[in-house]
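Long-time lurker. I teach an intro course on protein structure, and each term I like to show students one example going from raw sequence to a predicted 3D structure in token notation. This year I'd like something fresh instead of my usual example. Would anyone be willing to generate the tokens for the chain below so I can use it in lecture? Attribution to the forum is fine with me.
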Amino acid sequence: MGLYDKECIANFKRLSNKNYEIEDYELLLQFIRKKKILVTPHILTEVSNFATKLKENKFSEFIDANRPILERIDEEYVSKTNILSDIEIIKFGFTDISIVLTARKNNALVITDDFPLYGKCKQIGIDTIHLNEILSQKEIFKK
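-- Reply from a regular --
Happy to contribute to a lecture. Here you go:
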């Protein structure tokens, strides 16, 4: 959302209820800037669903603003068969299970603000950081 319009972070319903600020976005951007980013089609669908909730039908502007990063990130397909074979599909859903399976396969770090997903990843040994851990470092980066 921040690449499109940083002001959306505080005003967008799905983000504002978490009290994120522009400086949170900027810190996260610093953290991931030099890292390989890996997503699943399920994550991209959620991003698309977020964007369709923008006021005044700004979806095309959102896509255009994010196109450069969307073209650079790697995408990993996870089949529905693999997702459905995970016994915790009912508890976590398609997107979260796709994240778990992709992270496990690629030995990838998961960054999330979702405590159940964070706990699941930690429980099964996937390298995971809760977004709050990154945001707690704000003061260090201000200096």
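Some talking points for your students: The chain has one domain: 36-142. The chain is about 60% helix and 5% strand.
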